[in-house]
User: Fold these one by one.
Assistant:
Number 1:
Amino acid sequence: MLELFFQAAWKVLVAGLVLGAGIPALFALGVRFSAAGTGGAAMTVPSSKPNPALKALAAVCFVIAALAVVLGITVVVASGFGKMVSFDHVFPTLVDKG
Amino acid sequence: MNPETVLLVLVVVTALGFDFTNGFHDTANAMATSIATGALKPKVAVAVSAVLNLVGAFLSVEVALTVTNAVVKIQADSGAPKSALTDNHGEALLLIVLAGLVGGIVWNLLTWLLGLPSSSSHALFGGLIGSTIASLGFSGVNWTGDGTKLDGVVGKVILPAVMSPVLAALVAGVGTWLIYKIVAQVGERFKETGFRWGQITSASLVSLAHGTNDAQKTMGVITLSLIAYGSWTDTTSIPFWVKLCCALAIAAGTYLGGWRIIRTLGKGLVEISSPQGMAAESASAAVILASSHLGFALSTTHVATGSILGTGLGRPGATVRWSVAGRMLVAWCITLPAAGLVGALMWWIGDLVGGVAGGIVIAAILVAAAVFMFVRSRLAPVTAGNVNDEWEDAPAPSVPASV
């Protein structure tokens, strides 16, 4: 029982750190790039000029974070319909619950 | 029509009542952070959460009929009630379920009055365990399952309760720490607006997940009672009206907003800023979804509280009010036994009076207790208007110690 428990807890921790801490960190990077790209008062360091390249980078961060949210919704909805999201093929795919 | 119909109606109404308390008890899990940081106005936050809970409740088409199997043995694996309990239109089973529900509701109301975020699932399971012990003895409880998977009171309730706040705190702490490192040079205003949307989105995800998980439990309990009574026979589906009523009850409860608990989680435990709010809700969402994905049962409340605590630990210079955390911890530890005690007591009273009259008596006790606690809560009301007031180090809202 304890062994099963720690196996499950360990997996939850890894998934939690990757998605629950990694995605917010990515979002934070987006905020930072966006601020740096905006320039002026958006940063506390001596102001830089607006930079479209940084803004584009910020957009990439936000899009990946948004995809993670879509993945989250998919997990919720799928489990309600007796399906689960499988990561066996790296890309998430829907399969029947085993 | 027979006398037991009254008992069945009492069970259904009480179960919906529990679902309602489940809603307002858990609004804070998703929305306390967004309310505290001002990302959403209090009324808007509870409305969003209510709608998502409603949607979530309908999303789960899978049958949650065997929900009680996790802790007690009143159902067979197929979901059908144990035949020993179904004589006389399931009178025995209905009384166990009713007493258990009363135990859960009483504990939920008491912790709400004290502004403590305790787990509604623990309250429900505790109540059911108590009434089952009173009725069938200790062997009626599924303590550890058969050992081949995580099951029973130990595997599905106690171990996850110990571990999940720690996991959530760790994830949220790491997330907060990273975020603050990354945005250290970003201006304050830019930071607040930037994280606002991240915060709202992650909180919404928690609400949705909550709706799919928690409303199901009540649906399962009601359907079990219908089968025991004999008015429903299908163990592979749930009557539509049950699903509709449960979804509406949990959403209405959520919309009411458990302001006392929102205040404790949003203002009492740690002072929260937008980036912390996002870190907390993302950590909660990730831990809840990963766990349900892996079939690992846990309480939304424990996860949310752990996450908020974690953001306090992860942000350099933030203070965590350990006295508040300590009170919560005490509430968590006694939720299961306390709800169990009430459940057992209710079963004894119901059994003593006997039959349908017994059910009516314990329902009357529940109503009296609920009215009493509601009246007490009016002495120091917490509403959408004062939920974000400065936290003073007394347990606010102040409730006389005699409660």
Number 2:
Amino acid sequence: MASMSGQTQGGRDWLRAQTKLGRHAARPVVMFGLLNTILAIIQGTCIAAILGDALVIRAPAAAWAIAGFCIAALLRAGLSVASERVSVRNGSAARQRLRLDVMSRLLAAGPSLLRHEHSAALTTTVVDRVDAMDGFFARWLPASVLAIAGPVLVLLAVAAVDWRAALVLGACGLLVPVAQAASGIGAAAASRHQFQALSRLQARFLDRVRGISTIVLSGRAADEAVALAQAANELRRRTMRVLRVAFIASAALDCALALALVVLAIRYGHAAVTHRLNTVPALFVLLMVPEFFAPLRAFSVAYQDRAHATGAAEALATVPPMPVVAPVTAAIRTVTAHGVSITFEHVGFTWDPARGPALEDISFRVPAGETLVLAGPSGAGKSTILEILLGFVSPQTGRVLVNGADLATIVPEALNRMIASIGQRPTIFAGTVRDNIRFAKPDATDKEIEAAARNARVSQFVESLPRGLDTEIGEGGYGLSGGQAQRVAIARAFLKNAPLLLLDEPTAHLDPATEGDVMDSLRRLSVGRTVVMASHAAAVLSLGNRRLDLRDGRVVTARGAA
Amino acid sequence: MSPLYRILLLWRRQWPWLAAGAIVSVASVLTGAALLALAGAHVAVLLMGATAAVGAMLTALGPARVVLRYAERLVTHSATFRALASLRVWFFRRLAARSAGGLGMQRSGDLASRLVADVEALDGLYLRILVPLASAAVLLLVLLAFLVGQGAELWLPCLGAACLFAVSAFVIPGLAARSAQRSGVAVTGANAGLRVAVLDALSGLREVRMFGAEARMAEGVAARDWEAGLAQGRLATRAAFAQAGGFLCAQLAIVLLLLSASSRPVSAVGAVFLLVAAFEATSGLSRAGALAGHAAAAARRVLDAAAPPANAVAEPATPVDLPRSNALRFDGVHFRWAADRPELFDGLTLEVPQGSRVAILGPSGCGKSTLAALLLKITSPSSGRILLGGADLASLSAEDVRSRFGVLSQSTHLFDDTIRANLLLGRPAADEPAIWRALDEAEIGEFVRSLPEGLDTWLGEGGARVSGGQGRRIALARTLLSEAPILVLDEPGAGLDAQTERAFLKTLNDLPSGRTLLLITHRLTGAERLDRIWRLSGGHAIAAAA
């Protein structure tokens, strides 16, 4: 989803908005961090006093200094636990907020997404991309503030005893952000590429796993394993590219720290030679060097989180926004009372310009309570007409009227309530047969579900199973034949009890005996409803009194449907 | 055997890399400790008023430390990723070995979670646990050696400090690992649950829209997310406490030395610096203990999904060579899918001579597809024999058997790839004319030619970019393209309109002789030219007139 070229405007704006949201929550962590630095300064003072006394006058440790050191140590331990817990909570709260937002947007965008994206790739966006934002809120936001405030606090303390040493420290500290910026630009780009490799690996694996039986039976499992190894190696190479650059920043930090220590040691060495050395301040300054660099180190580590967040921001910013809800018009509310009539007026639709139009200038009318059969070879445009009625896609030319109201003005929820649909490949979720039927109406009673199962002839095959309707079935309908899965979908339609019924080749996978049964059920289901059915099976054609023959997206003949 | 240990054994081929990483890491840690200890001693000497030149040792150690540190990070990370990549491939191979019949009750999202997230969680095993443990062990020796070199006044505090170091590097991580065991299991489970919920909602987008289930699905995901957040929070709290414990050990060790600093100040300053370096090098270990709980749970999930299922068809210890002939024979076969399911075959006997064209008819649910599963060694008969060229299938290796069959089943999968790649799955070396011939035979060549990108058209998830009937015919073409001598077509007419179906069945009549055709279907159209027809009924096969 992310564009290969630099950061997009949308991604930047999105990240800015997130920063504003996250800063507030990060405030306690920043506070804890500053307190920690102050306590470290106190501890440094105590150690310097103790060691100074020991070195110069060989005196045992002063009680106040030991006590101060210990109290500060306990407080720091408590602070680190508190800070960690708040950070984790912030990261997890932000993830949950973002995930719900992205998920809702994807659900609102609907099934047309699946024509361009694999569901596994979308899942990567919702799961891994959002997870990648965790560090941004938990670590980066506080670290980016502490990286300035923490070292400044230390510098002030050092300047109070030796302003020249403070200058040295400050100069060495400045090297860190410079090196970070230089390597950070490369790291951000590399992180984007790394994520794409991860996303591709996941989508590929998921797709292969779903078809693993096909792969094994074709004797290609070994080849697929090799391909997976290549993809995994590609991921490793990309990750190492990110890290090679990121580690340079940490190496620069090591250098800056060593440089500061060496310069200060030389400085105090000279002072010692000329006997102008104040032992305690010198010790204090040396002890403060690691404390000065600690927030910078945290910053450097969190810089990776920022790089991941930049990549994630772009992907998340490209997820379609929530649609604006159109005002409900009066016509829609009366729909169910009088049944549903459908009118197509010069409708045209193209999935892919390179393949030519899927529908061209289609016009027809189905009065309320009537059945229209769409006939024609596969690829003629039957499914596209149904997808338009389902609201998955909108006509690009012409318009569709439902009870005289333009389909485009009907809110998706209202449209959903009117329609029950049975597709070519119904999705069966892992779970029991009963749960799968209940999906159509979560508040349905067991009685309603059993009635729907009976009407759709689901009972016929579940009766032979030991647990009946409570038999567990696997993802994608494992354990059910194609015809059985189809009957579960019909049971869903019975349960939903909607006035408009859309059927896409409902008997494609059924043997004649079952097909007859299912046709009986469908005939019963169609009573009093408007039905649009795509089919090429002869038995089904008998159902319709109106028929539209399609070929290459155009109407060839129309009977009773003009 | 503990799951983490088994994972380590699986990394056998990466051991040299892993060992190299550990060695560089230990060297880097030692350099760091030496640098700080020497620098401390040097400063102490200066502060005592004595003059001392910055030793050559010290000047060399600085840059060495920076370089080693960088090398350590690169080598250990690279070694980890190699190990993880090999584990992923191993996982896939094992999964393939157990999934000839499909995923069954396993969820693809859960398996993806195991392959990606759980394997990822194992990176901590080496990077954050094993390598620091190696460093900690070496550092402990160094600390003890340092202890011996000190005067008697410092023995006690140094010994105390070494003990504290051992506590922070070994005892606290061990305790954290034990206490994090349950939250580790919760975290891996919750993460997988989240991924499955998201994938379910997104791959079922059509159904979700049709039944207005958007809010329900989003709620389900949010609930899983909340659970995952809770589990992670619990794990993080344990890690934070372990870390605080390690920190306090370090601070206490410093206090011990400070208390006795006046007796031998120079040594004491050196010791403090050494301690600081030692504790810093292993500061991650305390919290890594909590990670170990997570890693162990992840390892168990990876190993579980890769373990062969209980009802797996056993491979013969010494498979016999495939016989030349491709004649098939079922001999008194009894079969049921599970103990509580009715018996599907009750002494099934039927014959398919080599090169013959045979149809097996029967209503849905009579076991037609099971017949194919038995032939392909996806499952095995409870009694009776199935013979290929006179050899019992039980004595042949599954891979050999499957190489003889080209299969179109009802669950044949179209991959999210090009039409070409999908077809080549059946025969990787096929040339362009062969591909087109297969497409034409499946009555889909014309359609593919009409596509602007032809064979390189992307099919989409499960063939989403073509209609159901078109997808079915592409799958058919893939089966026809395979060079296997026995073709098993399970309901090839499903999803085809009557005209296309008849045309396709006619092209089947022109298959080169010598190829066996096994047509599994619920009805005949009359277009098929067949040598023999078997009708399945009541667990038996009854020969019908051809």
